[in-house]
Amino acid sequence: MLASNTLRAALLLLIAEFLLASMGAIIKVLALELPNEMIVFFRNLFGLIAILPLIITMGKKLFITNRFHLHLLRATVGVSAMYCFFYSIGHIAFAEAMLVKLSAPLFIPIIAYIWLKERISIWSKAAIMIGFIGVAIILDPDASEFTLIALIGLGGAGLASLAKVTIRKMGTTEPSARIVFYFALLSSIISSVPLIWAWVTPSWFELGMLCLMGTIGTIGQLMMTKAYTLAVPGRVAPFTYASLVYASIYGWVFWDEQLRWATLAGSLLIFIAGLLTLKKPKKSTTSGDE
Known about the structure:
Blueprint: H1 2-30, H2 36-50, H3 52-58, H4 68-91, H5 94-101, H6 104-116, H7 122-139, H8 144-170, H9 176-192, H10 195-198, H11 204-230, H12 233-236, H13 242-255, H14 261-276
Helix pairs in contact: 1-4, 1-11, 1-13, 2-4, 2-9, 2-11, 4-5, 4-8, 4-9, 5-8, 5-13, 6-8, 7-14
């Protein structure tokens, strides 16, 4: 049964990463004509629409919270991460943008150590060092334009990690349904503000693409969530790197993108770092180890 659940989780994660990579490809297309602010808003709007059944089912108890400030923090940094990530997708090679996003787990132990006082295991320290060496190789100081945009994507990865640590901070008192609800609601409200000055009326094709982006992105997130409830995250987390394969194929087929050797070398180091973060600490270590 355990093996069966792990297999199902792995398959769900592979499909989820394909959907999220497909969402990214649509974002890259939309970025040619629409401002980043609109793309981020529609992504959040569909996330809110997706949880309407949850709101109807749970009613007013979904709204009751003593930690609204943390919900607001999570939504603010989460939306900021979207702005950074979506911008990087539109302006650098697709696979490289996805790869920079995959560096997000490297920030989590650092943020958790500073904010939550969680100690960092020796494996996490090694992973952080190796991972950031990989990131430095990918940033390629000789390619100034790529470096600047990639740094924006890297900033988005850091913000996404802060959002995840915020979830950990309030997860002791807030049920997951309330966390999902407040993020969908607040992120939609926050991302709607820039539309005051950034709105561009989309064509019917662009509107259809926005709807498709939001739909498959939401389905992908739901499938990913389901995968992590079926199996121990450490056993299936490496499958998230399938997004790099999908992105490479999309980039090659639609934009004739070729991966640089620096990107391949950096991606290998980040992948190794990701595997190291899955190393379980010994029982004598504290529960705060990554």
